[in-house]
């Protein structure tokens, strides 16, 4: 299945729309790519990705973890971000693409958001056609929903 997705992601610019499962994998791979953008892919980020996937797609914990693991492999195999964003833009309505950006901001807020993560989020928002204003509002919602940390361990 992963090889088939990678083949479709590398296809010419006008491929057939992705199945819902493939859109899930593309979003999960973007989450992983974002979490790895600062060269520190932490357990907190993995847990946040699993939680977002479970909530967004109504998955149990094991299924969310399996989807993230599959996304990690897809992210490593994909040469660029456009492979994922092109399909999301084509298959996902605008309002749901704003939700994609909000989910990515939720991952980014799992730890301190750095310049590389902010740049990645600006790139993804642009590639999937989300306005700066809607991206900013998605960032605010994600920040408001983020669990508060009370020191280095909590």
Low-confidence stretches: 149-154
Give, in order, the helices and strands: HHHHHHHH
**Overall shape:** globular
Strand content: under 5%
The major beta sheet can be summarized as: none
Query: What's the number of helices?
Result: 8
Rg, Å, rounded? 15 Å
Distance between the termini: 38 Å
Based on secondary structure, the structural category is mainly alpha
Q: Kindly report the average pLDDT value.
A: 86
Helix residue percentage: over 70%
Number of strands: 0
Molecular structure report:
The longest helix is centred in the N-terminal third of the chain and has 17 residues. The chain is built from eight helices and no strands. The termini are far apart. It has 154 residues and is mainly α. The C terminus is likely disordered.
Task: Name its key features.
154 residues; mainly alpha; 8 helices; 71% helix
Give the arrangement of secondary structure elements.
Elements lengths: L1 H8 L10 H17 L6 H15 L3 H17 L4 H10 L2 H15 L6 H13 L4 H14 L9
